[in-house]
Amino acid sequence: MKSLTKAILFIVMILLVGFTIVTNEEGKAAEPTSDKTEIVNEENIANSSIVDFVKKGVWTASWYGPRFNGKLTANGETFNQMAFTAAHKKLKFGTLLRLTNLKNHKSTVVRINDRGPYVKGRQLDLSKAAAISLGILRKGVARVKVEQIDLKGVNVPIVSLN
């Protein structure tokens, strides 16, 4: 059941973010280059040849929201505290991260759309929605396992979801 939940979450994020298929010279969809198992059903989508989870380590994450809601983010979109977004100092805008709270094992996916955090010892600032999803709203700060979601043959646009 856990992998089905992950698969559904992944599909929802793709639908929210949008994507384009990379094409070859003939205009046909480029074939992913991998010997991993092809997608057979929703159960094994995380093991498909187009999805790669790159371990980034354990980071300290905090959240921000109400004071910045409605203001412009670093990538030019309007910040929506109830969207699943995050701020990082160096990751490219549009980068998708799967985050897992180490205390309660709750997991979510966020998209980088802003710069920060600017508090020493923190590597990630989450939207209020992401903080709620991970169960860190009350405490405000948590250690999270970070995995970058790489989609082979798919260009993730750097556009607003708002």
CATH homologous superfamily assignment: RlpA-like domain
Distance between the termini: 31 Å
Assign the structural class, choosing from mainly alpha, mainly beta, alpha/beta, alpha+beta, or little secondary structure. alpha+beta
CATH hierarchy, class: Mainly Beta
Portion in helices: 10-25%
- How many strand units? 8
Radius of gyration, taken over Cα atoms and rounded to an integer in Å: 16 Å
Helix run count: 2
Gross geometry: globular
- The succession of helices and strands, N to C, reads HEEEEEEHEE
Parts with pLDDT < 50 across at least 5 consecutive residues: 18-22, 32-40
Q: How many individual domains? A: 1
Characterize the largest beta sheet: strand count, sense, and whether it forms a barrel. 6 strands, mixed, barrel
Q: Could you please say which CATH topology applies here?
A: Barwin-like endoglucanases
CATH architecture: Beta Barrel
Widest β-sheet, arrangement of strands: 2-6-3-5-4-7
Strand percentage lies at 25-35%
| Whole-number mean pLDDT | 80
List keywords for this structure.
six-stranded mixed beta barrel; two-stranded antiparallel sheet; 162 residues; alpha+beta; Barwin-like endoglucanases
Fold blueprint:
Layout: H1 2-17, E1 20-21, E2 51-63, E3 85-87, E4 96-101, E5 107-114, E6 124-126, H2 128-134, E7 141-151, E8 154-155
Parallel strand pairs: 2-6, 3-5
Antiparallel strand pairs: 1-8, 2-7, 3-6, 4-5, 4-7
3D architecture notes:
- Strand 4 and strand 5 form a beta hairpin.
- The chain has helices at residues 2-17, 128-134, and strands at residues 20-21, 51-63, 85-87, 96-101, 107-114, 124-126, 141-151, 154-155.
- It has a single domain (2-24, 44-155), classed as Beta Barrel (Barwin-like endoglucanases), CATH 2.40.40.
- The strands form two sheets. The protein has a six-stranded mixed beta barrel with strand order 2-6-3-5-4-7. Strands 1-8 form a two-stranded antiparallel sheet.
- It has two helices and eight strands, in the order H-E-E-E-E-E-E-H-E-E.
- The model is unreliable at 18-22 and 32-40 (pLDDT under 50).
- The chain is globular and about 40 Å long.
- With 162 residues, it is α+β, with helices and mostly antiparallel strands.
- The chain is 14% helix and 30% strand.
